[in-house]
Every structure is written in C-alpha cells, then in structure tokens.
Amino acid sequence: MTDAQQLFDYARKQFTEIADDVERHFEQVAGQLREWMPADTPFARQLPVPKRLPPPTTLQIVQRWISRHKGLSAAAIAFLVTGSIGTFIYIRNNGSKRKRRARRSASGARTDVVVIAGAVANPITSGLYLDLERRGFVVYVVANTSEDEQYIRAQSRIDLLPLQLDLVDPCTAQDQVARFRALLERDHHAFDGAEPHRLLMAGLIMVPDTQSMPARIEDISSEEWSDALNAKVLNTIATTQLFMPSIIEHKAKVLLLTPSVTPALRPPMHAIESTTYGALEGFSASMAAELKQDGVSVSQFKLGNIEIPSVTIKQRREGVPQPRLKGTPLRVLHDSVFDALVSQRPSRTFHVGRGSLVYNIIGSWMPPTIIGWMMGAGRKPEVVQNARDEAMQSSQGSLTWERVEQEA
Length: 408
Hints:
Elements: H1 3-36, H2 58-68, H3 70-97, E1 112-118, H4 123-134, E2 138-143, H5 146-153, E3 160-164, H6 170-185, E4 200-207, H7 222-250, E5 253-259, H8 261-265, H9 271-291, E6 298-303, E7 306-307, H10 309-317, E8 328-329, H11 330-342, E9 349-352, H12 356-365, H13 368-374, H14 385-393
Parallel strand pairs: 1-2, 1-4, 2-3, 4-5, 5-6, 6-9, 7-8
C-alpha cells in the first residue's frame, strides 16, 4: 500500500466519522425539540387528512343514469314533449271555447258596467262594445257629439247606452259624470218585487284612434298637430281624469288599446302617429304606477294585425289584394279584453294581433339602420292629399290602423 492510498483512506474515514457525528447531533436536537414543544403548537407536524371525494350532485346522478339508459331516456323526453304540446293545445282550445259571460244578480239582472271611450264609428271600438253587450255587460259609450249619440242609439241594444260627455266645458262634464256616479250608487230593481241590486263599474276601456296618413313633417300644419294631440291624447287624459273617482271606488280595471306595429318601428312619414303613441304610452305607465297603491290595475293592449270582418268585406268589394298572411281574428281581442276585465290581477301588457310582439322586439333591440333598411329607407312614398284629408276628417281612416302602410 502506498503512502497516497493510506492518506486517502484516512481522509475518507475522518469524513465518515464527522458525518455520523453531525447526524447524531441533529437527531439529538430534534428529539429534544419534540419533547420540549407541545403537540398542539402550529409548528408541530400534523399528518395530512385523507381526501374524500364529495358526494355526486343531483345533476351528475341524472347524467349518469341517462348515459346508462339512453333508450329509455329518449322515450321519456319524447313523451314529455308531445304531452306538453298536447296539453297546451287542449288548454288553448278549451279557453277559446269556454263561455265568457258577465256576472248577474240573484234576480238575473246585469250588474257589471263598462265604459268605453274612443272613436265611436271605429271598427275596433264598435266591435268591442257590441261584443261586451252580448256577453252580459251594461255598456256605456262616451259620446262627445250628437252624431255619436245617434250612432250608438241606432244599434238598438237595450244595454248599450250613450254617455254624453262634453269635454269642452269642464263644469258640464263633471255634472254628467256625477249623474253617472249617482246611477251606480242607487239601488235597482229588475222587476217589481225583485231584490234590489247595485251596479258595479268593472272597467274603463279607452280606444284612442292614433292612426294618421303618411306625411312629411314640413307638410303637417300646426293646426293638424293641435287637432291630433287634442283628439287623440288630451281627450283620453281628460276622460280618464273624470272617471278616476269611480275607478278607485269600484276598483275598476283600466284598459288602453293602441296599435303597436307602426309606432314600434318608427318609420318615416308617421310623425303624428309615433308622437301620439309615445304620449299615450307614457301616460299609461305613469297612471299604472299611481293607481297601483289604490289596488287598481292598468293594462295596455298593443295591437298588431287584426282581421276585421267588415273591413275585409269592404276591401274585397273594392278589389284590394288580400295579404298573404291573415291577421288574428277579432274574437281573440274580445276574449282578451273580457279576461282582463274579470281577472283579479291582469297582465300589465297584452300583445294581441299578428306582429305585435315581434315588431315590438325588433323596434326595441335592432339598430335603427337595419330597421330603416327593412322598411325601404330612401324611397319617397307617394302621399295622396285627398285621401289624407278624408282620413283626418273621419274616424273611418283607422280601418287599417293595425297594419304597417306599404308606402313606409
């Protein structure tokens, strides 16, 4: 063995002894520390808690069951879909076929009173008050002129009566409404010896005629603006104010019927119609908020394309081409109005008529440029002055109030 090898073995032996001494020293120190430190100190080493998988959720259980029973799941889903559709159709058919009749007293007399204010000769208005009278209501139609009163009496209905209301003279109008309130407050007898009963105001229905012929803003005179706002907006507001005490006392429903297709799209050449519709919608929203604390509900009917038999017959006789898509039958509007009058909590908004809800969504969410492109922006419609003057002078100009004019 050489001297170098002996030196190397000696160095390795010394290194091993030093390492063993250091390891024994650290073990001794660690043992002393474990004896000195308590077990609940944060420095004490704790064994890790074994992880447990959380229990499966309901969704996971359903997904696992569906994956194991695919055939049965498909059959169950098909059964639910077809059953839901069949149930919806059944309920809808029963709802349309069920008889809707107003309440009567013990003696068989009519007790519910409905007041309708609007264009008397308008097909929507006339069809509405005739239908409500057939369903058993005592219907009072607001007549602002002697011509309106004669038109209502010409219908020859016992419980369809004109209610004179002079909106030009506020004092006279208040006296007329006071006589109407006295009629509701006194006892009535259906026949001699019958039990007395009182009339109950079921609702006030307002059908303002917001239709106007297409015209550019610079072509509309200030007199036309004044007449339109007075006849379509101010008269509606004044009529509602006069009947407000009776509405609050009897908890009557307030219904506002307005066309919604053209105002929702806001096309050019319809400034008067869009302005009056916006004013009436704002008035309805404010009135609903105020009357809510009195327990009175206000509903707005947004009307779309409604097929009116009398208008359809007239158009066929005049050779007007029929649209490809038929409108909603007028009976649907009558049923919706009746349901709103007798419901405890009617909806705030009713969409009746083809296109009412769709065009409302389009007008609220789509950009104006796209709506203008859909309406054919850039084309100048031809406005016939004679037809425009005739429509502004007669309520018959609202025969097509539920359709978007082709000129727009």
